[in-house]
Amino acid sequence: MKVKKCVRCCLDSTVKHISFDENGVCSFCNAYDKIKDRLHDYDNLERLFLKKIANNGNHKYDAAVGFSGGKDSTYLLYKLVKDYKLKVKAFTLDNGFLAPEAKEKIKEIVNELGVEHEFYECDDRILKEMYHYICKKYLSPCIACSFLGYAVMINYASKIDAACTIHGRSIPQMLRAYQDADYDFYKPFIVDGLSEDSLAPEELYKDALRLIDKLVDERLAKRIKDELLIDGFKNGFRPFVAYYLYHPYNKDEIIKFLEENTSWRVISEEEHFDCLIHHGAMYLKNMIARRSHLMPEIAVMMREGTINSDEAKAKLIVNDDKKIAIKELKEFAKYAGLNYNTLMLKAKIYSKRWW
């Protein structure tokens, strides 16, 4: 089957759910065009951000903040505390594969900023079952981790009585699957986040759960609702706010700022240094996609104008360390109760299909 490529970005027909118009422009570019003006109107976005995070003294904390110890979450935590003067409580989901290096960096930064912090641990049984089920069906530990992470973030604000949850996903991460068709779990949060009149959090989360039910699995959606969103249903849900939806995002400037104003430094890796199975997960996803799994994020960077086509091509080169990846995948398979050989066989079979 011949691969069709978008005339504007680096996406091609290997990307799930993609379509092209009569001019050869992909559905992701066309969807982006509809919101791009709002994404860069920072005066209006700042006003909207303040509206979304308003506490009015009704809650114990102004915000619960998901904190991985990486550059993006460290920067937003600094800004919330130092610039916005918010009373926050930070939390880190220990997903079973949180690197010791990340734990030490997290402890150092929260102490430096004087922020309350908690390492949040899910029941080990839930972790293993989620990883086991999702990887049997979709061959991706990251999907399971994403659903766990979102559920914990959404629930945590209700648990500690914070006015909202603020997270640090970047624009490329948030918009990697954004298009007009309803295939993206995160899309309702983007639409709501850019709206003047937000939906009630309960309605927004119900829509998200319905999408999980439709696109993933009814049983999984029920487990998330019954076991991971308990405090939300009990105490009322709080808004889920994306910091970088309202603020400019420039990776190099963020790193420079942190190095000048905090003790944060790039130690081993710039991205996902906190995950002990990151190399394995990326190797698996790259194998299935038959190209860089990060292609949709790189395409967003092109639309944003932060990289050009030559830089995109360089980023699309896959340099997986197979030895490290296989070691991590074997450890993960053992933890999740999966057969490593079966997992890899399925990945090879999937890699022969065009999405």
Mean pLDDT across residues: 91
Beta-strand fraction estimate? 5-15%
State the low-pLDDT regions, or none. Answer: none
The coarse overall form would be globular
Distance between the termini: 11 Å
Q: Tell me the domain tally.
A: 2
Strand arrangement across the biggest beta sheet = 3-2-1-4-5
Can you identify the CATH class of the largest domain?
Answer: Alpha Beta
N-to-C order of helices and strands: HHEHEHEHHEHHHHHEHHHHHHH
How do the strands and helices of this protein lay out in sequence?
Layout: H1 27-39, H2 42-52, E1 63-66, H3 71-83, E2 88-94, H4 100-113, E3 116-121, H5 124-138, H6 141-160, E4 165-167, H7 171-174, H8 187-193, H9 201-215, H10 218-228, H11 230-235, E5 240-242, H12 243-246, H13 251-261, H14 278-289, H15 295-304, H16 309-315, H17 322-336, H18 340-350
Task: Tell me what you see in this structure.
This protein is α/β, with parallel strands linked by helices and 355 residues long. It folds into two domains: 42-246, Rossmann fold (3-Layer(aba) Sandwich), CATH 3.40.50; 277-350, no CATH class. Helix content is 56%, strand content 6%. The chain contains 18 helices and five strands. The protein has helices spanning 27-39, 42-52, 71-83, 100-113, 124-138, 141-160, 171-174, 187-193, 201-215, 218-228, 230-235, 243-246, 251-261, 278-289, 295-304, 309-315, 322-336, 340-350; strands at residues 63-66, 88-94, 116-121, 165-167, 240-242. Strands 3-2-1-4-5 form a five-stranded parallel β-sheet, sandwiched between helices. Helix 3 (71-83) links the parallel strand 1 and strand 2. The protein is globular, with a radius of gyration of 20 Å. The model has no long low-confidence stretch (mean pLDDT 91).
